[in-house]
Amino acid sequence: MPVQEKFAIAPHLAFDAITAGAPGAPLVLLLHGFAESMHCWRAQVTALGDMGYRAIAPSQRGYSPGARPNPREFSHYLIDRLMDDAMAIAAAAGYGNARFHLAGHDWGGSIAWGIAYRHHERLASLTILSRPHPNAFNRALATDGEQAQRSKHHKAFLEPDAADIVLADDARWLRDRLAANGVPTEAIEMHLAVLGNKQAMEAALAWYRARGAIRGPLGPIRVPTLYIWGDADDTVGRTAAEGTVDFIAAPYRFEVLPGVGHFAADQAPERVCELMLEHLAAHPV
Fold first, then answer.
1. Distance (Å, whole) CA 63 – CA 58
2. What is the pLDDT of residue 154?
3. Residue 221, CA distances (Å) to 117, 206, 226, 251, 259 in order
4. How far apart are the C-alpha atoms of 282 and 230, rounded to whole Å?
5. Residue 215's pLDDT is what?
6. 3-class secondary-structure state, position 230
7. 253 has which bridge partners?
8. Domains of the chain, first to last
9. What is the phi/psi pair of residue 169, to 5°?
10. Which residues form the AB hydrolase-1 domain (predicted)?
């Protein structure tokens, strides 16, 4: 089972993380999205550790109490800072100059795409869940009315009272959202233990308010990539998902999970573990 550790990258930036595997083994860094937490990766962290990897899934900026700059200062939550955090966590774990495997879901996927473009020489492989390549996503937003409809909740997160709305009635919105996507009750409680308070939620929403998504064109990805998409995903449509292939200049595998929603690692953990282990074995460090 995973254990919990802390990784400090600066005096006021100490990240909680769940980990498994021996230090020094090939690193797999796993980045969570919204509205979940590091615990979305617990099955994958366990499986990776059992297979000889060093798996680290941090609770990212704003989600970790020890790494929560003032969320009213949105510059603290720009995507460049989130990418820098991930690379610094790898360094703090002892992999400062080593190649490693990177995985990301949702917002963590956005960060992972950016790292794969910016630091491709550091990555042995890239695994993405539920987040198309930014160019494919932006193209779908511009041309596919269905994708624009799926993404409309992003604007609601910019409102000043968004945290109160999401957390009202014992976080009813959050519970309903996760449950509707097949996230087990036990997992929902784990995520709420991290995210179900006003301070954490305001910081998580600061990622949206910083307008931190990659909006400008991103170059082709030159890292072997596995992209996992559930065809019941209510936020990412088929146009954006299938269009990702246009922006990969490396070995690429696109896996569709029938009937799986946005939170694939929680809803279909065994299949995600299987696919990840195959991908990492095919592209060793």
1. 9
2. 65
3. 6, 27, 12, 10, 28
4. 23
5. 60
6. strand
7. 226
8. 3-282 (3.40.50.1820)
9. 55, 55
10. 26-267
- As a whole number of Å, the end-to-end CA separation of the chain is 24
Sign of CA dihedral 13, 19, 25, 30: negative
Question: How far apart are alpha carbons 194 and 181 in whole angstroms?
Answer: 19
HSE-CB of 181 using CA atoms within 13 angstroms? 26
pLDDT tens, residue by residue, 187-220: 999 999 999 999 999 999 999 988 755 566 788 9
Contact (Cβ atoms closer than 8 angstroms) between residue 276 and residue 44: yes
Q: Which residues, 6+ apart, have CB-to-CB distance to 84 below 8 Å?
A: none
Which phi and psi angles does 261 have, rounded to 5°? -90, -155
pLDDT confidence of residue 150: 67
Q: Is 170 helix (H, G, I), strand (E, B) or coil?
A: helix
**pLDDT < 50 regions, the chain:** none
Amino acid residing at 54: R
pLDDT of the residue at 160? 83
Residue owning tokens 């919204």: 34
Model pLDDT, residue 249: 98
What is the SS3 assignment for 240? helix
Q: What does the block give as tokens for 126?
A: 């890239």
Q: How far is CA 58 from the centre of its chain?
A: 10
Tokens for 79, please give them: 């995507």
Choose among 124, 106, 120: nearest CA to 63. 106
